[in-house]
Prior knowledge:
The protein is built from ten helices and ten strands. By secondary structure, it is an alpha+beta fold. A hairpin with a 2-residue loop joins strand 3 and strand 4 (about 50-55).
Amino acid sequence: MIDFENHRSDKIEYIYNQNDINLNFQKHTHRSFEVTFVSDGALECEIEENVFELNAGQAILILPGQIHSYKTRQYSKSYLCVFSNDWVHSFYDEVKGFHFENPTFSCDGEYYGKVLQDKKSDKFLIRSVLYRLCSKAYRSSNLQKSNELHFALTNSLAFYIQNNYRKKITLKELAANFGYNYSYLSAYFSKYFGMNFSAYVNSYRIQLAKAYLTSTDKNITEISNICGFETIRNFNRAFKRECGLSPKEYRLNNKTKN
């Protein structure tokens, strides 16, 4: 997901489709809805501090602004769709400020995936399908009031990184910008993002680099610069530490698989 969704999801009638084998993606957020279907295997989705396991025939609906991530432990085949709030504005107004106790539901993902990815589908069909999916989630779980202060802070932190990862950023700078004590913010970040600040920023950059490596022909030095690494040496070292492969090896392996 190049540049994730934080810049693109503000567009009117925005929709993005993605098919994955063994989806793994770190904690992130965006201003759109996201629905993910599993057609084979098992996929873990963590939303805030809750982990939900999706098996074949199941789906999950992630609401705008929720911090979420994906992990495949053995094998998963999945499809996800990110769509802007205006597609389902009445539903968005209903759930704003709330979250689902259990956002998973049973669903024929193959049917919905075909409709949403079909270029012949008009906007009225797409809107009706997205509302049906929202309805399935709505009828499958109870809504609970979200902690507004926690929601605002986690989103502010995530969006700050997503908007500034190309330059050198520090937790000290972040604390000063948001008016928080450094130690408090450090502990908060580790608790809700699952790693310390610098590790998260590097992991974010690596996730972005992986997307560029597999979906563009940009050279590795160019990708390193785009993703905010100061030197190609730092990029290669950080990439191999996280992925077990060099950027070149990762690109070759994925091209072979595809």
